[in-house]
Design goal:
- The complex is a heterotrimer.
- By secondary structure, chain A is of the alpha/beta class.
- In chain A, 36% of the residues lie in helices and 23% in strands.
- In chain A, the strands form two sheets. In chain A, strands 6-7-8-3-9-10-12-11 form an eight-stranded mixed sheet, with helices on both faces. A four-stranded antiparallel sheet of chain A has the order 2-1-4-5, covered by helices on one side.
- In chain A, helix 4 packs across helix 5, helix 4 runs parallel beside helix 7 and helix 7 runs parallel beside helix 8.
- Chain C has a two-stranded antiparallel sheet.
- Chain C starts with 17 loop residues before the first helix and ends in a 6-residue tail after the last helix.
- Classes of the chains: A alpha/beta, B mainly alpha, C mainly alpha.
Chain lengths: 331, 303, 347
């Protein structure tokens, strides 16, 4: 088996606040191949963004990886020093954030900020660096790059700013691009453009992409593989096809049910009952149990183990174990 | 941008004019005229004053003539000693200016350094010490601090000589005058540095692989200075009024102490002229600060 | 299958009841904004300390004059005779006349802070000075609050042209030098104003009136801007739109929705305004246009203590310490309130 680009094994990340320990990520494992597009989907508070930040180790001061491994090309990132991470960030792995409005420094020009990314990790300086910046801006579809370089972030629209963020992230041709809710803060029409851009850049440059989002529609179009998260744990993971056509976790089923279907306007919307989980006080058993229609006694007390459904699909839900049990019992 | 500057300048001019008017008409609201108060004035002096200040003319006209004289640099004469006020201002203002500017620079530099240090070493010993002292010094009125400094260092310990015509020692006066603004700026820059460090663009910089040092001193610092510069205007106002106190206590012969003695002696012409001078100074300083501020923060729209 | 199915039994797969599910779902306590803020405030040791200090000071200045038999303007006398020897006594000492009086069996309340240069008990004077300074600070803040709130809410709520003009006026007022105006007014008013003898205003003196007038004319602009800013941001909020769409009247909207949101800003601002007023009064006393004698204020006491500082340092220290304590407590309280109640602060 070829070496995985990224292998996250049983990751645990917590935030230590005045109110107590918030266990944001509780035992997350997945893998990433070179050039693969992976989607991590979940609602707010599911731990998807924290997982991404743990990989880059850009957690807030109160956050810490408390367990597990993150193997990048075989080496465990969680053991690296800050200096080693600085070499990793922006060069091997880049990230673009949700809100391009606040993610760019308002008092520096676009050119300054992009030049910084180039100068940090390559040997280019001066005019060479500027040339590279303009090249990158053109790559993401920004015209008049020379003019734009001298402008400030506030002089651009949200869509433009996100393009700049993408350009900055790709400055050093990283192996992995993490996109944390890249379109949530943008208008719908711009959303499509940005996603298309990411897709075409991926084809051109061949990097792996981790797309973190709560929007199933975004995931469906782009991703090879999907990871569904809830309450800091993985519900199920597999190829896009498997997840969409053969969901094996109650939460995923709920998500898919609640998507409005344009072709069937008469059908009533079926939301998932209840409210998102309180991460300060995780339940003993399955995190989704309180909101689950199919909850069983075992769900209350035991965290579901991950079951292999088939080669392309793994799920952590007691319903699958029940099905297997009944199958065996029925024989 | 040009239009904006013109608008602000016009507003400043208008403000100064309003101040002159208020000052003038208030002074002349004293019944019997301020100039007849002192019985000690000889008739000759009174006659000279009447002529100089056109006191026989109607008030409105007096005002216009006074304004005209002002614009020509004629500030009038002191009631107490008959000296040309212009000369008094001329010799005492440079001292006050030196004192005030030094205090401002000290307050700004040290305040920013202390505040940023406190922000960076949050909840550790340097932070706690800095917070303690800055909180303390915003609670001590300047005249108490100045008096204590004078008592301890000039009189009891005699480490610093008292101000005299020959020995101009600015150290203690600058220290006393800069204490409050320095403490205020320390607290202000700590808050704004903490605020800047929590912004998304810092996270972006970190994600690009920027070193911690650069993150703080390049990305955060510039943003954190913006509120501090905004404070520059009120700081100037404080320095001007504060200098009255400091100069009096340390017996520095600056314009501030002259103003205070004018008040005590009811030297109305001096009060009037100095008020207008200081007020105009404040307005101009505020104007310059405003324009500078727009330069530093590119986000400000020129309305 | 990778799992060992033998460890499961049929009971495991029985559906869970609603009750059991609810027990799993531990939500955090819901509290109101106010309760949450108060809880945070009382967790803050500095805030608690300042509240305690202020309470102690308030209790002292209310009850001490009932205990101490001297009056603030009273020149000490023994058996009806003026006691000239009671000048500048150190704390807890007696003058010669007083000592003789005590030897002869009389009772004399101790001079806790000593006496001043006019043979008056200093402790009582400091108490009254504190009262006056606090009163001035408080009253000035109220003026600022009322005018600022009215102006700011009208300007913010009406918006448009009216708001524009009102804010231009604020700009001009903002650039007027307040201290100079106070000095000017005080100097003029001293000659011009006369109050009924014995009334509070007369005792305070014309200078304080000028202070209040200038506060009323100039100092409210900061508060007005703050309130207007709050109202503008709240106006955009959807729940105002919601209230209007169900037909609520503007005044009701202001009362029920806007003011509670402004409340925290108002309280914090007022708490910080009082020390500012006290400082202003101290400054005026220093320049010689403070509260009218014999009424003491902390500023004027500190100022008159400057003469004879070397011999009687305690005369400066007592009022200085009281000023610092009051201002410090109010500043710390203001900070604590801001930390606890300001929703903009990310915690």
């Amino acid at each position: 088996m070829s070496e995985k680009l990224l292998s996250v094994q049983d990751l645990h990340t917590s935030f230590f606040t005045d109110a107590g320990e918030v266990q944001a990520v509780n035992g997350v494992s997945f893998e990433l191949d070179p050039g693969e597009i992976l989607g991590i989907v979940g609602e707010s508070g599911s731990g998807k963004s924290v997982t991404a930040y743990s990989i880059m180790q850009i957690l807030a001061d109160t956050g810490r990886i408390t367990g597990g491994k993150i193997l990048f090309k075989g080496e465990d990132l969680s053991l690296w020093t800050e200096k080693q991470m600085q070499g990793f960030r922006g060069k091997n792995c880049s990230i673009i954030f949700q809100d391009p409005m606040t993610s760019l420094n308002p008092v520096f020009t676009i050119g300054d900020q992009m030049r910084e990314a180039v100068v940090l990790h390559t040997e280019r300086r001066g005019a060479e660096a500027d040339a590279r910046v303009m090249e990158l801006l053109e790559l993401v579809g920004i015209n008049e790059p020379a003019k734009r370089m001298k402008q400030y972030p506030f002089e651009h629209s949200g869509g433009m700013r996100q393009r700049v963020m993408i350009a900055m992230a790709l400055a050093c041709e990283p192996d992995i691009l993490i996109a944390d809710e890249p379109t949530t803060a943008l208008d719908v029409t711009i959303q499509a453009q940005i996603l298309e851009l990411i897709q075409s850049l991926q084809k051109k440059m061949g990097m792996a992409v981790i797309l973190v989002t709560h929007d199933l529609g975004v995931i469906a179009d782009m991703c090879d593989n999907i990871v569904v998260m809830y309450g800091g744990r993985i519900c199920e993971r597999g190829t896009a096809r498997e997840i969409f056509y053969n969901p094996r976790h109650e939460y995923t089923k709920g998500l898919l049910r609640s998507i409005p279907n344009v072709n069937n306007m008469k059908k009533k919307l079926v939301p998932i009952a209840g409210t998102p989980i309180n991460m300060l006080n995780l339940p003993k058993g399955c995190a989704f149990c309180p909101r689950c229609d199919a909850a069983m006694k075992i769900c209350l007390t035991e965290i579901p183990e991950e079951l292999v459904i088939n080669e392309d699909h793994k799920a952590s839900c007691w319903m699958n174990v029940k099905a297997a049990y009944e199958e065996v019992a029925g024989q | 941008m040009g239009k904006y500057i013109i608008k602000r300048v016009l507003l400043a001019v208008l403000t100064v004019f309003v101040i002159c008017a208020i000052t003038f008409f208030l002074m002349h609201a004293v019944p019997g005229g301020p100039f007849n108060r002192e019985k000690a004035l000889s008739d000759a002096t009174i006659a000279a004053l009447n002529a100089r200040y056109n006191l026989d003319k109607p008030t409105g006209e007096q005002f216009l003539l006074y304004m005209k004289a002002l614009l020509h640099g004629d500030f009038g004469v002191s009631l107490k000693n008959g000296r040309e006020i212009k000369a008094v201002i001329g010799e005492s203002f440079p001292i006050s200016a030196k004192l005030g500017l030094s205090a401002m620079v000290v307050a700004l530099l040290l305040g920013t350094v202390f505040g940023s240090t406190a922000a960076l070493m949050r909840n550790k010993l340097p932070d706690r010490l800095i917070v303690f002292f800055s909180t303390l010094f915003t609670a001590v009125p300047s005249f108490i601090l100045a008096t204590l400094l004078l008592l301890v260092f000039c009189i009891k310990l005699q480490w610093v000589p008292v101000w005299s015509a020959t020995s101009h020692n600015y150290f203690l006066p600058v220290l006393a005058l800069s204490a409050y603004p320095m403490a205020y700026i320390t607290r202000l820059s700590k808050t704004s540095m903490l605020d800047a460090l929590s912004q998304d663009y810092i996270r972006t910089a970190r994600a690009k692989g920027v070193s911690r040092f650069k993150m703080i001193f390049k990305h955060a610092l510039r943003n954190s200075l913006i509120p501090v510069i905004t404070y520059a205007g009120p700081q100037i106002a404080y320095i001007i009024t504060g200098s009255m106190v400091i100069e009096t206590i340390f017996t520095v012969g600056g314009l501030g102490s002259k103003f205070v003695s004018a008040i005590t002696n009811r030297d109305y012409t001096m009060i009037m002229a100095t008020t207008i001078f200081l007020a105009a100074l404040m307005v101009i300083a505020n104007l310059i600060c405003d324009l500078l501020y727009k330069l530093v923060d590119p986000r400000i729209k020129y309305d | 299958m990778q799992l060992d199915l033998s460890k499961f039994s049929p009971e495991s797969f029985v559906p869970a009841t609603e009750e059991e599910k609810r027990q799993q779902d531990v939500m955090s306590e819901s509290t109101t904004f106010f309760k949450d803020g108060m809880r945070k405030l009382f967790k803050n040791p500095l805030a608690v300390l300042s509240i305690t200090l202020l309470a102690i000071i308030l209790i002292t200045i209310i009850f001490a004059p009932m205990v101490v038999p001297y009056r603030y303007e009273e020149i000490l006398s023994v058996n009806g005779k003026r006691d000239k020897g009671a000048k500048n006594l150190a704390p807890f000492t007696y003058s010669e006349m007083e000592q003789k009086y005590i030897e002869n069996g009389g009772e004399r309340f101790p001079h806790i802070f000593g006496t001043d240069e006019m043979c008056r008990d200093y402790f009582v004077r400091v108490i009254y000075a504190t009262r006056i300074s606090l009163f001035i600070g408080f009253f000035a803040s109220i003026i600022v609050l009322i005018i600022g709130m009215l102006y700011g809410s009208i300007s913010g709520y009406l918006g448009g042209r009216v708001d524009l003009i009102m804010m231009r006026i604020v700009d001009i007022i903002y650039s007027l030098p307040d201290m100079l105006m106070i000095i000017l007014l005080s100097v003029v008013f001293q000659e011009v104003l006369h109050f009924a003898s014995g009334s509070l205003l007369d005792k305070l003196g014309t200078n304080m009136v000028s202070l209040f007038i200038v506060f009323g004319l100039l100092y409210w602009v900061g508060m007005a801007r703050l309130i207007r800013g709050q109202i503008l941001s709240i106006k955009e909020n959807e729940y105002i739109l919601a209230a209007r769409s169900i037909g609520a009247k503007p005044s009701r909207i202001i009362r029920q929705h806007i003011l509670p949101n402004c409340l925290s800003v108002i309280i914090i601002s007022t708490a910080l305004q009082i020390p500012s007023a006290i400082f202003t009064e101290s400054f005026l006393s220093f320049v010689g246009i403070g509260v009218k004698a014999p009424m003491p204020s902390l500023g004027s006491l500190a100022n008159s203590a400057r003469e004879g500082l070397q011999s009687y340092p305690y005369k400066l220290i007592f009022p200085a310490v009281v000023i610092c304590l009051i201002v410090l407590s109010l500043n710390l309280l203001g900070d604590g309130l801001r930390d606890a109640f300001d929703p903009k602060l990310k915690r």
